[in-house]
Amino acid sequence: MDLKNRTRKRIAVIPGDGIGQEVIPQAVKVIKASGADVELTEFDWGAKRYLRDGTTVTPDGFAMLARDFDAILVGAFGDPRVQSNIHAREILLGMRFKMDLYANVRPVRLLDAALCPLKGVRPKDVDFVVIRENTEGAYSGAGGVFKQGTPDEIAIQEDINTRKGVERIIRYAFECCRSHEKTDGSPRGNVLMCDKSNALTYAGGLWQRVFQEISGEYPQLTTKHMYVDALCLQMVRDPRQFDVIVTNNMFGDIITDLAAALQGGLGMAASGNIHPGKTSMFEPVHGSAPTIAGKNVANPFGAILTAAMMLVHLGMTAEASKIEAAVLAAVRDKKTTEDIGGTMGTREAGEWVAKRVNAPL
Ligand code: NAD
Ligand code: IPM
Ligand code: MN
Hints:
binds 3-isopropylmalic acid; binds manganese (II) ion; two-stranded antiparallel ribbon; about 350 residues; binds nicotinamide-adenine-dinucleotide; alpha/beta; single chain
């Protein structure tokens, strides 16, 4: 049977480390409450497994995920006991790179004015999406260390930008802008490219030329450009100006933490690692937050909104809408964790959303 065409979708769940272990069970609970026709299979990849038996990714693990699952739901990786962070690189960057999940889609949506640290900013003022290149750039792992431990030590970290890689992510951003409405139903119309082409001229030049070329295929959309430093200022000064932002791997990482702050913090930010037509991976933007792990204080909404994003990707839009509405209700009623002003624990906030998802309207 063709696994990809069955109605019941198979989801691999990898909670990972730290608060990933706490927020993912809440996301799973909410998925179940939504009635989504899914089969969930959990994997124990993460620091604990690595420290126990040295395994980061099981042999053939990425091929297995691509073959046997329709989507992957991930928590976070990072544990102070694994200083090298090798397991996080092999598992997380492994999925992104080896499964060729080239578009890291990070929506930035303010659910309630009370969550935004900026004065007078309303939900409709923060409704944009960052499309981050996810398979190359400074994350490629090209480079090396020479004469390590000597006064002459040299460390090289290459920033790889391929024509194919740049072209497909920029095209993805234009397609996203063309086909995805804003939350209020109005069309999107602007694609902004963020780079540092004034200083990093070789890579920046390629991005500039490709952006120019592809924008010609979308005459109905307008374009903008900002250097990444200026963009950081503008994101805080006036987030209304952003619609779709496309950028490279490293800038995309950095600006989406800043953008998370506009939404109420890292606990609220969702993301997808997508290759259209291939098994894609969904994870909250935040990390394993070791200092708050195990205390039942982590905000589960980023993970829950990530689960909703995954269900949309799998075509279960009704279930996803129910989940998003329930999170919105929780935020408005302050049925939340402390980071966004409530008094609930991780489990209690997740439970409230799960119940609300099930409640008759
Ligand atoms: P982090 O995202 O884990 O935490 C940054 C800050 O945000 C901390 O103050 C933390 O307490 C807070 N925070 C994060 N998520 C929260 C939530 N759900 N609710 C409430 N507060 C939350 O980033 P970090 O501290 O730089 O990194 C910790 C570890 O996580 C490192 O090992 C890092 O490499 C890893 N990391 C992993 C991922 C991932 O797996 N996708 C992403 C980012 C960082
Ligand atoms: C993220 C994280 C990762 C990244 C780390 C853990 C490698 O910060 O997903 O935003 O830099 O991509
Ligand atoms: Mn990050």
